[in-house]
Sequence to fold (388 residues):
Amino acid sequence: MTDMVYGPRPVAGGEPILPRWWSTIDKWSLSCVLLLFGIGLLLGLASSPPLAARNGFDAFHYVERQAVFGGAALLALWVTTMMTPQLVRRLAVVGFVCAFVALAFLPFFGTDFGKGAVRWYSLGFASVQPSEFLKPGFVVVAAWMIAANQEVGGPPGRALSLALTVVIVGLLAIQPDFGQACLILFAWGVMYFISGAPILLLVALAVAVLLAGTVAYNGSEHFARRIDGFLSPDVDPTTQLGYATNAIREGGFFGVGVGEGEVKWSLPDAHTDFIIAVAAEEYGLMLVLAIIALYATIVIRSLVRLMRERDPFIRLAGAGLACTFGVQAMVNMGVAVRLLPAKGMTLPFVSYGGSSLIAGGIAVGMLLAFTRARPQGEIGDLLFSRRR
Fold:
């Protein structure tokens, strides 16, 4: 608790690995992750029994699977946080290459599970969504390219990272998965902006995205249907957005009571994409605000710690991971309250899903590894010495 209040203490060089890890990790962010996972299990107990009954499983079938996936995610997070930034980068490159190949072969060997978008590989006992694992690897690889661009005589990393981004967005659009494509673009834009990109170039890219969205609207019935539903002044009460909107309205400040919610019986994705509607209905606005505060704490603390980092690669990769994590949570909740069109995006560590939980554990593990306290001077000291 002392470290959480006053910051990490100096680390002795010969200190064992576990005490050294504990003294340098961001304990507030780690605690927030554990709380989010606990809330996810709590909401899974409320939201998943109706789906399990419809599919002929035991009442807590999905909760048990979420606990298993969550345990694997927390193990992956813990192992990743103990790595050095250099080791994280190497493993991220390997993971990114594997996820990229899997993404490229999705149109040939993937399945849509009747949802209209080919995003998964079916393994029989489980499914894998390559785009979830692609995101953290992409952020680290793109940050490495952009940071290398800043070195004297370095490669054209910015141009290479942009080309890689365009290829990935194209592969995601084929599925179609425009939500993940937007996250990839956002992550790259954040890192490019932090690296000192001219604002006019970013404006031009934003215009290009709008034009691409127009083309997608005219050429994809799946995309057009979601945009039309979002822009419609009336919400069909029999749609997922209609059920979610009504549940949030019924919940009020303190909810209708544990187990008393009705939305879980109507929403097929109550345990995944719309789990925040279950939280709002049964526990009210208070729990929703607590969840938002947990996500905000992780993002803000990570960015503050990264501001003191001297290594440009760590700053870029950490900022990209933190902002992507926060925006994914914001998009999921924004869809539920109809601030954004439906995206099919999970709420990190809260929604059910093996791929999203394990990939989220890896991503946040990388972020916590990058934000660990290391023996270095403040970046302000470096800038001051250069002026002298």
